[in-house]
Design brief:
Elements: E1 2-5, H1 13-22, E2 28-30, H2 39-51, E3 56-61, H3 63-73, E4 78-83, E5 94-99, E6 104-109, E7 117-118, H4 130-148, H5 157-177, H6 182-200, H7 206-218, H8 222-237, H9 242-251, H10 263-274, H11 291-299, H12 302-305, H13 313-323
Parallel strand pairs: 1-2, 1-3, 3-4, 4-7
Antiparallel strand pairs: 5-6
Bound molecules: fe (ii) ion.
Length: 324
């Protein structure tokens, strides 16, 4: 077994318990986990797995640690994922690997990347800092939102996604206010699981499409980009999917009223306002000059094109400028 552990948790009691539990089966440990899963990290972890003859790996951490694990799983290694954030990577066969030289994040779906087992333990999330809790919680919310109006929407996913929205919007502020509130942490982790289930069973659209391009080009954390972009994308999509937006607003307790498709976006702006995350792209150090190339690249993205409302390059630029 190879143990892939995010650097911030290597000295934690949770990591220690895993090492002790694995005992002699533990053949190597990999800690060189970086945001957006650089190609070099995946190559190094795969080389270590091959060198040590590992036939299984345990990945503990956020989306990036589990992303490295998925990269290793693509080489035929069985993966166990222990998520410590709300990013939801453990439930999907989606692998995003970044080519840093080209500034591109390549996102692929491959069943071989899906973890064989995901272990949800709210206790491992108790020390997650409030800004990471907030950003990755907003990423989970975005998974639910996109699953509610996905192009290939089915009867099962939206009810699951709406339950995720209920749990996330209620528990996220509690977890930010008091990180050691175990009941709120359990609710938020359950919501993140429902969110991950939802996005695993839906086609991602404009929101994730544009966030992946922004992340690949700028290196800003996926959760932070999600938090900033989500209400803008919801506002853009509102008139195309009013029923879904009404249901989302209802789940957020934002007073769903007919002909008020913007209620869900407003509630999401309000939630963002209350959280310890950057509110605008410029607050993350992203320069205005980046917006045009991002709009151009995003316009050609199949994920963006899967949006329920057609999106042009000028729509994208307008959206990005509003969020900047
Ligand atoms: Fe995401």
């Amino acid at each position: 077994m190879l143990f892939i552990c995010t650097p911030s948790l290597t000295t934690s009691t949770h990591a220690q318990r895993i090492r002790e539990g694995l005992g002699q089966r533990l053949v190597g440990e990999f800690n060189d986990v970086l945001p957006h899963v650089p190609r070099e990290a995946v190559d190094a972890a795969r080389a270590l797995a091959a060198e040590k003859n590992a036939d299984a790996a345990v990945a503990m951490g956020g989306g990036s640690a589990i992303g490295v694990g998925k990269g290793v799983a693509l080489g035929g290694v069985a993966l166990v994922a222990i998520p410590t954030t709300y990013a939801g990577s453990e439930m999907t066969p989606v692998v995003g690997i970044t080519d840093r030289a080209a500034g591109r994040k390549r996102v692929q779906r491959d069943p071989a990347a899906l973890p064989r087992l995901a272990i949800y333990d709210p206790e491992v999330t108790l020390n997650l800092p409030a800004p990471v809790t907030a950003a990755t919680g907003m990423n989970a919310l975005a998974h639910c939102v996109e699953a509610c109006y996905s192009r290939d929407v089915n009867p099962v996913t939206p009810p699951v996604a709406l339950e995720g929205i209920r749990r996330i919007t209620r528990s996220l502020p509690l977890c930010v206010a008091a990180g050691d509130d175990l009941e709120a942490r359990e609710n938020l982790l359950t919501g993140a699981y429902l969110a991950a289930f939802s996005i695993a069973n839906a086609t991602m659209a404009l929101h994730h499409g544009v966030c992946h391009v922004l992340g690949g080009r700028t290196g800003v954390a996926h959760g932070v980009l999600n938090a900033i972009m989500l209400p803008h994308v919801m506002r853009f999509n509102a008139d195309a999917v009013p029923d879904a937006m009404g249901a989302i607003a209802g789940a957020m307790d934002a007073g769903a009223r007919t002909r008020d498709a913007d209620a869900a976006a407003r509630a999401t702006f309000a939630l963002l306002d209350s959280l310890p995350v950057p509110k605008r792209l410029r607050d993350t150090g992203i320069r205005a000059e980046v917006l045009e190339p991002v709009a151009r690249e995003a316009a050609a993205s199949p994920t963006v094109q899967a949006n329920p409302k057609p999106v042009s390059e000028s729509d994208l630029l307008e959206l990005l400028r509003a969020a900047w």
